Amino acid sequence: MAFALQDSTFKRFVEVGRVVLLKSGPDAGKIAVIAEIIDHKRAVVDGPTTSVPRQSYPYKHLTLTPLALTKLPRGSRSGAIKKQLEKEDTLTKWNNSEWAKKRAAVEKRRGLNDFARFSVMLEKKKRRDGVRKAVKASKA
Amino acid sequence: MARSKELVPGVGRFSRSQVAAKRGLWKGTKKSEKPAVEPTSETVEKTIGGDKNGGKRLVPTSKAPRFYSAEDVRQPKKSRKTAKPPQLRSSITPGTVLILLAGRFRGKRVVFLKQLESGLLLVSGPYKVNGVPLRRVNQAYVIATSTIVDLEGIKLSEELNDAYFAKSSSKGAKSAEEEFFEDGNPKEKEPFPASKAALQKEVDSTLITAIKKTENLGKYLKSSWGLSKGQYPHQMVF
After folding, report:
1. Beta bridge partners of B141
2. Mutating which of A115, A120, A123 best tests the B interface, going by the most B Cβ atoms within 10 A?
3. According to its UniProt record, which protein family does this protein belong to (chain B) (predicted)?
4. Residues A75-103: tens digit of each pLDDT
5. CB spacing of B238 vs A114 below 8 angstroms
6. What is the pTM (predicted TM-score) of this model?
7. Which of A110, A113, A119 sits opposite B145 (nearest CB)?
């Protein structure tokens, strides 16, 4: 861990147990845990509950999340990681975070079909109408 | 079936006699009887119109050519390519909502009914919803959406084929004088045949009951499609 933790501007560290979001590659968009640090550019990453095979991953293609498994010893294998993930229920914590919800919303929006986009437009019009009516009523 | 594998261009693994042995030519070749061809007669009797022409005449079936060229002309090879009607895209099934991209009804969302023998798609607005009648449309100018209207129980009459939509031949060109004297009046339009209108209503009634089952589907079909800023078709799901 970095020194002067109390007044450090850095809050998320690359450490064993840090939950990371994979940014590119076939597992892009998935959550994994840092199991071991290889060198200044790579770490061993493993996501047994999110189907990410244990592999080395460059930091360049990772994003650190505020979640971490604190009780993980260095070099834990998939089984131990899985146990700890289930114990701390990390995946649910991630899915309930605003970050994950925003990602899910963006993905949903991108995958809408033409009819769905039309329905969204109708709903937005309804909402806009309601808001404007409420504003007018409050001004009166 | 290459019975003699090509080792080098022009050189096969097996010799001529070895290949013949492989083919079983020692068994003897089968001789199939060609079906007896009816000899076509040299002349045909044809009736000629007009009073003083003798009524009937013996006309030769094949005439000698009018012109023999001095040099041997190279005959172009006969093409073996056959034009087949285009295959229907897998995303288009009966009931699919299609977006028309070109033509009089561009931007309209219509319901696909079936593919005709020519390969064109038979489509209906329905007419009451967006003004698109029973019409033929080319698959290439259409976006297939993933929205499907349930067409269970619809019976498309056998009449609906390419011949039904064929344009009636125009009555012969008018001379410039006649047109000049028309004073630019609009050409008389023939009223839309009642049978076609009835067929349209019949098809549309089943469509409209199916459309009413989904919320907003009627409004959707009524509206036009268009791209706005930041929308790129290759990045959109339809």
Report:
1. none
2. A115
3. Belongs to the eukaryotic ribosomal protein eL6 family.
4. 899 999 999 999 999 999 999 999 999 99
5. yes
6. 0.72
7. A113
